[in-house]
Specification:
The protein is elongated. It has 7 helices and no strands. The termini are far apart. By secondary structure, it is mainly alpha-helical.
Length: 165
Protein backbone atom coordinates (compact mmCIF):
# COMPACT_ATOMS: atom_id res chain seq x y z
CA UNK A 1 0.00 0.00 0.00
CA UNK A 2 1.43 3.37 -0.95
CA UNK A 3 1.62 6.31 1.46
CA UNK A 4 -0.98 8.12 -0.67
CA UNK A 5 -3.44 5.23 -0.29
CA UNK A 6 -2.87 5.16 3.45
CA UNK A 7 -3.46 8.92 3.59
CA UNK A 8 -6.72 8.53 1.63
CA UNK A 9 -7.92 5.81 3.99
CA UNK A 10 -6.97 7.92 7.02
CA UNK A 11 -8.73 10.99 5.64
CA UNK A 12 -11.84 8.91 5.06
CA UNK A 13 -11.87 7.17 8.43
CA UNK A 14 -10.98 10.09 10.72
CA UNK A 15 -14.09 12.22 10.17
CA UNK A 16 -16.38 9.22 9.85
CA UNK A 17 -15.30 7.38 13.00
CA UNK A 18 -14.05 10.25 15.17
CA UNK A 19 -17.38 10.69 17.01
CA UNK A 20 -17.44 6.97 17.87
CA UNK A 21 -13.86 7.12 19.19
CA UNK A 22 -14.77 10.21 21.23
CA UNK A 23 -17.71 8.43 22.87
CA UNK A 24 -15.39 5.64 23.93
CA UNK A 25 -12.46 7.74 25.19
CA UNK A 26 -14.09 11.08 26.10
CA UNK A 27 -10.81 12.78 25.21
CA UNK A 28 -9.70 14.33 21.89
CA UNK A 29 -6.09 13.16 22.07
CA UNK A 30 -6.95 9.64 23.17
CA UNK A 31 -9.59 9.42 20.44
CA UNK A 32 -7.01 10.44 17.82
CA UNK A 33 -4.59 7.81 19.14
CA UNK A 34 -7.35 5.20 19.14
CA UNK A 35 -8.26 6.00 15.53
CA UNK A 36 -4.64 5.90 14.46
CA UNK A 37 -4.18 2.45 15.99
CA UNK A 38 -7.45 1.24 14.49
CA UNK A 39 -6.55 2.52 11.01
CA UNK A 40 -3.22 0.71 11.30
CA UNK A 41 -5.04 -2.53 12.11
CA UNK A 42 -7.55 -1.99 9.28
CA UNK A 43 -4.69 -1.59 6.81
CA UNK A 44 -2.73 -4.48 8.31
CA UNK A 45 -5.72 -6.84 8.25
CA UNK A 46 -7.45 -5.64 5.08
CA UNK A 47 -7.24 -9.13 3.56
CA UNK A 48 -9.47 -10.44 6.37
CA UNK A 49 -12.34 -8.20 5.32
CA UNK A 50 -14.98 -10.13 3.41
CA UNK A 51 -16.54 -8.35 0.47
CA UNK A 52 -20.25 -7.90 0.84
CA UNK A 53 -20.12 -7.35 4.60
CA UNK A 54 -20.62 -4.04 6.35
CA UNK A 55 -17.31 -2.14 6.28
CA UNK A 56 -18.49 0.40 8.82
CA UNK A 57 -19.41 -2.29 11.34
CA UNK A 58 -16.09 -4.06 10.77
CA UNK A 59 -14.10 -0.86 11.39
CA UNK A 60 -16.18 0.02 14.47
CA UNK A 61 -15.52 -3.45 15.85
CA UNK A 62 -11.79 -2.92 15.39
CA UNK A 63 -12.00 0.48 17.11
CA UNK A 64 -13.96 -1.01 20.02
CA UNK A 65 -11.54 -3.94 20.38
CA UNK A 66 -8.52 -1.62 20.38
CA UNK A 67 -10.19 0.51 23.06
CA UNK A 68 -11.07 -2.52 25.22
CA UNK A 69 -7.56 -3.95 24.88
CA UNK A 70 -6.03 -0.64 25.98
CA UNK A 71 -8.47 -0.33 28.87
CA UNK A 72 -7.67 -3.83 30.12
CA UNK A 73 -3.95 -3.18 29.79
CA UNK A 74 -4.23 -0.01 31.92
CA UNK A 75 -6.33 -1.84 34.48
CA UNK A 76 -3.75 -4.64 34.80
CA UNK A 77 -0.96 -2.10 35.25
CA UNK A 78 -2.92 -0.33 37.98
CA UNK A 79 -3.56 -3.62 39.77
CA UNK A 80 0.10 -4.58 39.63
CA UNK A 81 1.29 -1.23 40.97
CA UNK A 82 -1.34 -1.22 43.73
CA UNK A 83 -0.40 -4.74 44.84
CA UNK A 84 3.29 -3.96 45.11
CA UNK A 85 3.93 -0.39 46.25
CA UNK A 86 7.50 0.77 45.76
CA UNK A 87 9.77 0.14 48.70
CA UNK A 88 10.26 3.28 50.74
CA UNK A 89 13.70 2.31 51.95
CA UNK A 90 15.21 1.47 48.57
CA UNK A 91 18.19 3.74 49.21
CA UNK A 92 19.06 1.87 52.43
CA UNK A 93 19.34 -1.50 50.76
CA UNK A 94 22.73 -3.10 50.50
CA UNK A 95 24.46 -3.34 47.18
CA UNK A 96 26.08 -6.42 45.81
CA UNK A 97 29.35 -6.59 43.99
CA UNK A 98 29.16 -6.96 40.26
CA UNK A 99 31.14 -10.05 39.26
CA UNK A 100 31.78 -8.47 35.87
CA UNK A 101 33.83 -5.69 37.43
CA UNK A 102 37.54 -6.20 37.36
CA UNK A 103 40.76 -4.27 37.48
CA UNK A 104 41.24 -4.58 33.73
CA UNK A 105 41.65 -1.37 31.80
CA UNK A 106 40.39 -0.68 28.28
CA UNK A 107 43.79 -1.45 26.74
CA UNK A 108 43.98 -4.79 28.54
CA UNK A 109 40.48 -5.73 27.43
CA UNK A 110 41.29 -4.82 23.83
CA UNK A 111 44.45 -6.90 24.00
CA UNK A 112 42.35 -9.88 25.20
CA UNK A 113 40.01 -9.31 22.27
CA UNK A 114 42.96 -9.17 19.88
CA UNK A 115 44.13 -12.55 21.24
CA UNK A 116 40.90 -14.19 20.05
CA UNK A 117 41.11 -16.29 16.87
CA UNK A 118 40.22 -14.16 13.83
CA UNK A 119 37.05 -16.13 13.07
CA UNK A 120 35.56 -15.22 16.47
CA UNK A 121 37.16 -11.78 16.87
CA UNK A 122 35.65 -10.35 13.71
CA UNK A 123 32.11 -11.44 14.58
CA UNK A 124 32.51 -10.28 18.18
CA UNK A 125 33.79 -6.83 17.21
CA UNK A 126 30.99 -6.36 14.68
CA UNK A 127 28.43 -7.26 17.35
CA UNK A 128 30.22 -5.13 19.95
CA UNK A 129 29.98 -2.15 17.60
CA UNK A 130 26.21 -2.53 17.45
CA UNK A 131 25.68 -4.60 14.35
CA UNK A 132 22.77 -7.03 14.26
CA UNK A 133 23.37 -10.77 13.89
CA UNK A 134 21.69 -10.78 10.47
CA UNK A 135 24.12 -8.14 9.20
CA UNK A 136 27.10 -9.94 10.74
CA UNK A 137 26.02 -13.11 8.95
CA UNK A 138 25.83 -11.24 5.66
CA UNK A 139 29.25 -9.60 6.07
CA UNK A 140 30.98 -12.80 7.16
CA UNK A 141 29.07 -14.85 4.58
CA UNK A 142 27.79 -17.43 7.10
CA UNK A 143 24.31 -18.45 8.31
CA UNK A 144 22.82 -16.33 11.10
CA UNK A 145 23.11 -19.21 13.58
CA UNK A 146 26.83 -19.45 12.92
CA UNK A 147 27.23 -15.70 13.47
CA UNK A 148 25.41 -15.97 16.81
CA UNK A 149 27.52 -18.97 17.78
CA UNK A 150 30.76 -17.15 16.99
CA UNK A 151 29.81 -14.13 19.10
CA UNK A 152 28.74 -16.41 21.96
CA UNK A 153 31.97 -18.40 21.74
CA UNK A 154 34.04 -15.20 21.70
CA UNK A 155 32.24 -13.94 24.82
CA UNK A 156 32.93 -17.21 26.63
CA UNK A 157 36.58 -17.17 25.60
CA UNK A 158 36.94 -13.60 26.87
CA UNK A 159 35.16 -14.47 30.11
CA UNK A 160 37.57 -17.35 30.72
CA UNK A 161 40.62 -15.22 29.95
CA UNK A 162 39.45 -12.50 32.34
CA UNK A 163 38.83 -15.10 35.08
CA UNK A 164 42.36 -16.44 34.70
CA UNK A 165 43.92 -12.99 35.09
Amino acid sequence: MTPQEIQQISNRFYPEFRPYALTLTRDEDKAADLLQEAIYLVIKNHERFTNGTNLQAWVKTIIRNVFITGYRKKKRRREITEEQPPASNWSNQTTELNPAESDLGAEEIMSRIEELPEIYRRSFLLHFNGMKYKDIATITNVPIGTAKSRVWTARNMLRERVKRD
